[in-house]
Amino acid sequence: MGGATPVGGLRRAPRAFSGRAATTGPDGSLDADLLSRALAGDDSAFGALVDRHANALFGLAMGMTGHTADAEDAVQETFAAAMRGMRGFEGRSSVRTWLTRILMNKLADLRRARRLHRAVPLHAATPGLARPASERRGDPFGADVRMDVSTMLARLSPEHREIVVLREMQGMSYRQIAEVLGVPPGTVESRLFRARRRLRDLLGDYLS
After folding, report:
1. Alpha-carbon separation of residue 5 from 8, 67, 72 (angstroms)
2. How far apart are CA 205 and CA 148, in angstroms?
3. Radius of gyration of the chain from its Cα atoms, rounded to whole angstroms
4. Residue 165's domain is classified under what CATH number?
5. 139 falls within a domain
6. Are 67 and 116 in contact (CB under 8 A)?
7. Which domain holds residue 199?
8. Number of domains in the chain
9. Residue 174 domain-assigned?
């Protein structure tokens, strides 16, 4: 998703998504300032928001879909929706949380439309995570136990997958996840507990 071709009136990020699941910085005041300037008609300010958050959102979308084109489309649609709806942003959450909530809605729309059941290559979206054995040629540590996490994550329900991706890949707090998903923090805790238990069960199946 490179270049500077406008799509739906939105300037694309000037470089391709890297897939890194980290933001360029936690400075919420800078985000708020950029959004305020964008509301005043400063197109470059909205472009700066895209640059700050595109890679993190792409990492999240990759974790949920496992498909580069789908992830890129979802992120592009997220920023287009944010541009259209930024006057409705009330500042009750951070800009990052607001963008993440839009993205999760876009991903839910994508699941409903396409009924995606692809394996999720979690290693591709999370630097440092072990790659599946089938992709590790000549690995001297091939005898070590290395889960095919992509297959296991794909076997989770969408509800459990999103909670794992938001917490473990995006590093969001329970409060932030609750804001993104529109559920109480207690629900986040219980879903995460069940999702982790399911992952442990899958690991047990893997080792048996």
Report:
1. 10, 21, 14
2. 12
3. 18
4. 1.20.140.160
5. no
6. yes
7. 28-133+147-207
8. 1
9. yes
- What amino acid is encoded at 179 in this protein? E
Tokens 């459990």 correspond to what residue? 160
Rounded to two decimals, what is the model's pTM? 0.67
Amino acid at 86: M
In angstroms, rounded to a whole number, what is the distance separating the alpha carbons of residues 164 and 182? 16
Residues 36, 208: Cα–Cα separation, whole Å: 55
Please tell me the distance from the alpha carbon of residue 75 to that of residue 62, in angstroms, as a whole number.
10
Return the amino acid letter for 173: S
Residue with tokens 């069960």: 201
In tens digits, the chain (208 residues) has pLDDT values of 443 333 334 444 333 444 333 333 445 688 989 999 999 989 899 999 999 999 999 989 988 887 889 899 999 999 999 999 998 888 888 899 999 999 999 998 888 776 644 445 444 444 444 444 444 444 443 433 344 566 777 788 888 989 988 998 888 999 999 999 999 999 999 999 999 998 888 877 655 5
CA-CA distance, 33 to 94, in Å (whole number)? 12
